[in-house]
Write a structure and sequence with these properties.
Blueprint: E1 4-6, E2 12-14, E3 20-25, H1 30-33, H2 50-67, E4 72-77, H3 81-91, E5 99-104, H4 119-132, H5 145-164, E6 177-183, H6 185-196, H7 200-204, E7 214-219, E8 226-227, H8 234-239, H9 244-255, H10 262-267
Amino acid sequence: MGNVISGRGTKQKQRRWPKRIILVRHGESEGNLEKSVYRDVPDHRVQLTEGGKEQAKKAGELIRSVVGQYCKIYFYVSPFLRTRETLKEIGAAFSSSEITGVREECRLREMDYAKFQNTEKMAEYKKERERYGKFFYRFPNGDSAADVYDRISGFVESLWRDIEMNKIPESSDNDNLNIVMISHGLTIRILLMRLFSWTTEQVESLTSPENGEVRIMELTGDDGEYSLALHHDDQTLEKWGLSPQMIVDQKKRAYGPKVVDHLTSYFDLLPHINLDFGKK
C-alpha cells in the first residue's frame, strides 16, 4: 500500500501512518478463573475479576509510559464485556484530549466456542483439536481459527482503508498517533499472523498472550512496515513462540532492509519436498 495519496488538482498529501499499533488482551475474567462459568453465562457477558481490572490498569500505565507526552490514542475494542471493561481501565491512563476515538469492532471478538459450554465436552474437543490441527479444527456449533482469520482479514483491510482515507481522527496531523486494539488471546495471534503474513504452522506454535499483556508494533519507516522488535527483545519473542527465522524477520523490519526469501522459507517447512527443481 502506498504512502502518498493524490488529492484534487495537483496537491498531494503525505500518508502519516500510526506510530504504533498496540495489541492488548483483556484482563483476567471470571471464565479464566473458573471454566464452569461458561455453563451459565454467555461468553460475551463474562466479566473481569478484580485482579483482571488491576491487570488492565497496569496495561494502561505501561502504554502510557511507551507513548509518552503529546500522544493521541485511538481505540478499537471487541464488543465482549470483559474487553470493554479492560478498555475502561486502560482509558483512565489518558486524558480526554488524548483519546481521539473509540470504535467497538465486532470482528475483534473471541473465537466462538459454541453457546453455553459443557466443561467436560470442551476438554474432549480440545484434545481432538490437538490431533486434527489447531488452525483448521472447528468446534461443534462454533468457529475455527481459520474462520477467525477470515474476519480478521476483513478488519485489517478496513483498517488500512480508514488510514488511507484519513478516517481516523488525527491520523494526518499527529506524529504520535497510537492505535490500541483490545481483544482476545487467539484473535491477537491471528491479527499478528495476518499483519506479518505468517503461515498456519507458524501461528500454531505461538503462545497466547497473558491476561492484560501488551504487544507493541512500531512503525519502522514511511512505507507502513511495523515491527515487534523495537519494543520486545529476542527472549520475549521466543517466549511468545516466534521461531528464529520469524525473529530475524522482525529485526530486519526494525533495523534493516527486509530481505526475506518467502519461497525458500515456506518450503523449509516441508522437508520432504525436493527443491532441486532443475533435476528430474
